[in-house]
Every structure is written in C-alpha cells, then in structure tokens.
C-alpha cells in the first residue's frame, strides 16, 4: 500500500536509508551511493517535499520516494546539453526534482520503486508540474542503480554538473516531461 509520508514516519524512513547504506558498504560494485539521514533530517525532507510517499508491507515502511522543489546551487556548474531546459529547471512552478528514493534491501526487484514513482508522477501532474528532473552521481562512483532506474523511466540527459569546490565530484542531470505536448 502507498500513502503520503508523515512526520511520524521519519524514524522508519531514516532506518530504511541506513539499511541501504549497510548493503552498499558490502557491495560497492553497484556504485549505489547512499548517505545517512537522521530522523530530524528526514522530517525536514518530508516538510519541504512537494510529494513524499511511503510503501507499506504489513504496516512496515519498505519504500520511500519524494520530489523537491528545484534548487539553484552556488557550488555547482551546469553544462546544459539541452539548453532550452535551463529556464524550465529553475522554474519552481513548472519543475521539480526526484530527491530521494529508498527500498528495503529485502524488497528489491518487486516493483515497489516503480509503483512509488508512478504515484509520484501522477500527483505531480495533478499539481500542474510539467518537468521532473533527477540528479544522479556519476563521479567519483557511478550510481548504477539510480542511472538504470531513471533510464528505464524514459529520462533524458539535460546537463552535466560539476562541483566548484569538489573537482572530483560530478552529477548527471536527467529530465522527464510529465505532460504530452510540452
């Protein structure tokens, strides 16, 4: 069952993210990057989200996904492969970003991420959003799991992103049109 995330879910979501971190440390070959998120940080994430969803299995949270307003970072340089999307990206009424997604390691490859994604997209469309962006780490390690996920959902490369203060860190910014005819 999918429902909106609640502030009371923060501890369980934080633990879900931590469980992914433990798995990633065991197998770095996937390149899947995960950062710890304290329950306090998760509360802030939920509060700032345009859409925040959890997936429940037997009343236990086994999946989380959210969309955030787009943010212009001062320490990032964007090299736009699709320059016409630059103004779309910075338009908070038209565009949003997939910020965080996590699935319990024991529930992977069961379609939970796809179900969360589809419900999130439906909600964003209903709210009038036209574009969904996803920023995926490509250096120093490629986040292969997230890259595969966004590609399977039809995202296209919009820009490459470098960090001005971290020259070895790079991201790829992907975009997906949410509404036909845009």
Can you describe this structure?
With 182 residues, the protein is α+β, with helices and mostly antiparallel strands. The chain has one domain (2-177): Gcn5-related N-acetyltransferase (GNAT) (Aminopeptidase). Helix content is 30%, strand content 32%. It contains five helices and eight strands. The protein has helices spanning 10-26, 39-48, 86-89, 112-126, 144-152, and strands at 2-4, 51-57, 60-69, 76-80, 95-103, 131-139, 156-163, 170-177. The protein has an eight-stranded mixed beta sheet, sandwiched between helices. A hairpin with a 2-residue loop joins strand 2 and strand 3. Helix 1 crosses helix 2 (39-48).
Question: Characteristics of this structure?
Answer:
alpha+beta; eight-stranded mixed β-sheet; single chain; 32% strand; 5 helices; 30% helix; 182 residues; Aminopeptidase; globular
List the helices and strands and how they pair.
Layout: E1 2-4, H1 10-26, H2 39-48, E2 51-57, E3 60-69, E4 76-80, H3 86-89, E5 95-103, H4 112-126, E6 131-139, H5 144-152, E7 156-163, E8 170-177
Parallel strand pairs: 5-6
Antiparallel strand pairs: 1-2, 2-3, 3-5, 4-7, 6-8, 7-8
Helix pairs in contact: 1-2
Quick rundown:
This protein has 182 residues and is of the alpha+beta class. It has helices at residues 10-26, 39-48, 86-89, 112-126, 144-152, and strands spanning 2-4, 51-57, 60-69, 76-80, 95-103, 131-139, 156-163, 170-177.
């Amino acid at each position: 069952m999918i429902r909106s995330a609640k502030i009371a879910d923060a501890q369980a979501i934080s633990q879900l993210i931590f469980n992914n971190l433990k798995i990633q440390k065991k197998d770095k070959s996937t390149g899947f990057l995960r950062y710890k998120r304290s329950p306090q940080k998760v509360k802030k994430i939920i509060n700032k989200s345009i859409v925040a969803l959890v997936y429940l299995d037997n009343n236990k949270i086994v999946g989380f996904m959210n969309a955030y307003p787009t943010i212009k970072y001062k320490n990032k340089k964007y090299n736009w492969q699709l320059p016409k999307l630059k103004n779309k990206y910075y338009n908070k009424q038209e565009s949003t970003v997939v910020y965080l997604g996590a699935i319990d390691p024991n529930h992977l490859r069961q379609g939970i991420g796809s179900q969360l994604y589809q419900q999130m997209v439906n909600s964003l469309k209903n709210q009038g959003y036209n574009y969904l962006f996803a920023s995926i780490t490509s250096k120093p390690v490629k986040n292969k799991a997230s890259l595969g996920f966004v590609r399977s959902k039809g995202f296209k490369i919009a820009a490459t992103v470098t960090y001005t203060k971290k020259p070895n860190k790079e991201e790829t910014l992907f975009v997906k049109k949410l509404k036909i005819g845009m």
